[in-house]
Every structure is written in structure tokens, then in C-alpha cells.
């Protein structure tokens, strides 16, 4: 059923992941006063010009909210919904790891100071929400299986 608690968890994960598509995720500055940021389009400078496209991060940022929304509407097939929720969890963690990897690699090339934004925590919160949705779907599945045994 679409009015279950897992729908709220997945909707919150989709909204948080969707918010990451706008604005900067991480802001970095050098001692010389040059600022860079990582956003949906890639690594950008202070004027907003893209220095380098970060395609794997862009794909992950686009896939997570899409799969969360698809998972919400797969409520009639709980096993598919569980798999999609687990995929959302893994991709959210992948987004977090890949973003940290890009920041560390950029820090190795140029000595930078990283200024974390609130949006850099969104993948972690999204992963936790996807895990909670997975648990709720699993409980529903176990309840349905127990009722089928009684028949």
C-alpha cells in the first residue's frame, strides 16, 4: 500500500537527493583566494564555469532520487521495492564515498581548505532513510507471509 511508512522514508530520501541536484555540495578554497566547488555539473570555479565534469558523480546524483521514486510506486511488488530500496541505499553511500574521493584527489593536487556544506550530509541521511524503508518493507513482507501460512 502506498500509504505505509516506507513511502515517507523513500519520499524523504528522494527529496534530499533531489535537493543535491541544485547548488554546491562542497566548497573549497586555496590560500591565494581562489574558490572551487563540486556540484551536479562537476568541479566549477568561482565564476560558475565548469573546470572538469565529474560524470560518475553526476550519474549517481541523478539515479538516487529517480530510483527512490520508482521504488515508491513499486508498492505492489514488495520484493522489487526491497531491491530498489537497497540499491538506493548503496548508491547513496556510493555518492558519499565518490564525493569524498574527489575532494581528497583535488586536495592532493592543490593545497585547499574544504568548507563542507549541509548538503554533503544528504547522501548519508538518504542512505539511512533507504535502510529504514527497507526494514519497513521487510516487516510487511514477513507479515504477509505469516498470514499466508495461516490460510
Could you characterize the architecture of this molecule?
With 151 residues, the chain is an alpha+beta fold. The protein has one domain (5-150): Butyryl-CoA Dehydrogenase, subunit A, domain 3, CATH 1.20.140.150. It is 62% helix and 16% strand. It contains four helices and five strands. The radius of gyration is 19 Å and the shape is elongated. The protein starts with a helix and ends with a helix. The mean pLDDT is 89.
Largest β-sheet summary: 5 strands, antiparallel
> What is the CATH C-level name?
Mainly Alpha
How many structurally independent domains? Answer: 1
How helical, in percent, are the residues?
Answer: 55-70%
Q: Taking strands numbered 1, 2, ... along the chain, how are they ordered across the largest sheet?
A: 4-3-2-1-5
Gap between N and C termini:
21 Å
Ranges where pLDDT stays below 50 over 5 or more residues in a row are none
The number of distinct β-strands equals 5
- Calculate Rg over CA atoms: 19 Å
Order of helices and strands: HEEEEHHEH
